Amino acid sequence: MIETTRRLCLGLLIGMLSFAGVIEGQAKDAGLLGQRNTFGVMAEYSNDSSHIILGDAENVKLGAVGLQYQRRLIANRHLVWSYAMEFRPAIVESIPTAIFKTVQTLPSSQTFANAPELVTRCVTFSKPYTYTDSVTGTVYAGTVSESCGRESTYAQGFSPFGMRLNLRPRSRLQPSFSSHEGYIFSTQPLPISSAGSFNFCFEVGFGLEYYRTQHSSMRFEYLVQHYSNHNTAYANPGVDNGLFKLTYTFGR
Asked: Are residues 87 and 67 in contact, defined by beta-carbon separation less than 8 angstroms?
């Protein structure tokens, strides 16, 4: 039984290596641009968030730098399909905060205000109020207001499950489609204090990749990223960001 299993594993390994060799040979014969193994350095930015897919939080800004790796799996003259993964060691999230303040003028001058609080939506306003206590007849008057600010949170992310599809692989300028799935882990709960520090993340989008040489390229993409904690915390307000991503790739 052990010998049969060993032979089966050896056969599978030889088959995989042979398949990879055939694909690489096809890629070279077809005159395709790009390499079998590709590495990349990327930067991405989003200036806003809204309800694009499943998100609830608004006006969340995001910036990140990271590394990419992809391995070509299928290649022919029409397309190149690759496994892809990303590691983002530095993510900065800028989250809206709100301060709710009450300035009382009657029957005495007092001010009440909470500390800045992370919120999914903040709208600046100021509104006067007045009412009379029905028991004591005391008149209360003043102004209530909400002011908005921002607070930065740091995180890192890893997306081990992903794919990339390039069309027109013989051309220097190639349409590109990609998706990634993984997680984001932050120094504090995102996007509000009752949510979690661990969030599941996925993104999907398209772009253009320009091959400067056979071994290197520049890729510009627009992706929609969603992250949420999948109800593993008390609250689960998802965040949808539209990301602009620039990547320099090189291969061997």
From this structure: yes
121 and 156 share one domain: no
- Tell me the pLDDT band of 10, cut-offs 50, 70 and 90: very low
pTM greater than 0.90 (yes/no):
no
Tokens of 166: 């390039």
pLDDT of 28 above 80? no
Residues 157 and 215 in one domain: yes
State the residue range of the domain holding 186: 32-95+152-251
**Cβ contact 138:104 at 8 Å:** no
**Positions of E strands within 16-170:** 37-46, 61-75, 79-106, 110-113, 117-118, 125-132, 139-167
